[in-house]
Request: fold
Amino acid sequence: MVKNFDLVIIGRGSAAFSAAIKASEITMHQAKIAMIGYGYLGGTCVNVGCVPSKYLIEAAKVAQNQRYPKYPGIKSIEPSIDFKKLMNSLREVVNNERENKYINVLKSYENIEVFDGKSSFISNDTVKIDSGEEMSGYNFIIATGSKTKIPDINGLRETGYLTSDTVWSLNYMPESLGIIGGGFAGLELGQAFQRLGSHVAIIKEHETIVKGIENELGNELIKALGEEGIQFLLKRKVKKVYKKGNKKIIETLHGNETEKIEVDEILMTSGRTPNIDNLGLEKAGIKYSEEGITVNDKLQTSNPLIYAAGDVVHRKYKLETLAAREGATIASNLYENGSKKINLQEIPISIFTEPQLASVGYTEKEYNEKFGKSMSRTIPLNFVPKARLLRENCGMFKIVIDEKTEKIVGVHVLSPYAAEFIIEGVNAIKNNLTYLDIINSTHIFPTVAEGIKLTAQSFYRNVSKMSCCME
Amino acid sequence: MKSSVMEKKVTLRIFGMTCNDCVKTVSEGLKNAGGEEVSLSLDDGMAILKIDDVKISPEDIAKIPVFGEKSRYKAQIRKVE
Reply:
């Protein structure tokens, strides 16, 4: 027997929850919604993404501050780390977050019915779950997320590896860790493991650590992480991996030279790949590629009654923030007759390393390639008084503006707390502000966020010759 | 030659109705916007009506004030014949 719904959501992560809750709110809990999925409720973010990684990063920061206190007079001590206890607490936090913010939240929405299982379209308005149940919907949202992309490396499967999805079950600290692939997860986990006592090497085929970020910020971040002891092996193609006793060998090609590194564990962070397999997308007339499902600016797939949101969509970045926004936008478009679109240039990204990298809008190179000329200003972190008080000097601020209109088109920050205040850049771009609008808004002294104002001021004056809180 | 009347039958899924007063409010809203032969069910939230497409399009009937941003009622077009 086929069950009928107003909305069938395939997936149960950030995008799915955001869409289901927003749709429920708009329709006074009257839209009959099915949410179908497998694995832990909540998807990547709460289970294997943002939540556990930020917990580990913060724990590692405490260890680092014990080992290298920033202020004279405070004695350095080697932190005593019970890694298993730390990871148990991490898993407990994840369980609590999942229970409180996903499982319990659903209890408030009687109109949302959750089904366990893998599902596949059998026509353009019906899916079949592997349990045999069939669900028909007027609309569908595909929000099946992504998984770690595993490149075809000789010997990898036999040697064994961790991924950013499986690393959370570790109970011992690997003495050495070879991370294949940079990216958000590789850099964040790399720094956390290094600080907790592992010797980390990040191996990447390209010269840049994260695609699409400002190179000068990326290079500065490599420098900062390198100073903490992380070994960057860039422009290395991994040829093969194999076991040697208790160790794992990663053999790379650097130019014509073969290099080997010996590690205890291998962590794969070589990007994420959309979960599109076995969804029967063809039967519903949905176009896709191996990069993900193709959507228009209203997030409709090639079947206009079916939408897609989150990591399964073909996008430059796969972000929880974007997934949640996409889910809510679809709900609004479905039930409020909206034609809301998401301007990807207003979506910020962040790498939660220390210093943090946060960015929104175009890089200078992207803007010049797309629209012609831009202007930019970059200031080093040590121009910012609060950074000097924090005794932090690794970082920089960069603002890109349109040359004619002087409107801000990109804000890029590498600094402490960058993720906390990149919202100023988001608002500047969203509201078409110029650098003068930033200058004319009072910033609290002393904050790291003042760096944005100082960078804006640097478009017309030499900020190195200003008193420290000058407007 | 284009007809001066383009009658269309529109099926809407209405959300937000909880009582007969709601049905009355939504029905009146649809009629005031040019909807004719309005039939509305509280049980399944479905509305069927006829409109003159020259005067108001199916897309616009789903955006009339009774379904506006601050209204509790929302309409989704399900079928246009």
User: Anything to note?
Assistant: The first strand of chain A starts at residue 2 and ends at 10. The CA atoms of residues 119 and 132 of chain A lie 9 Å apart.
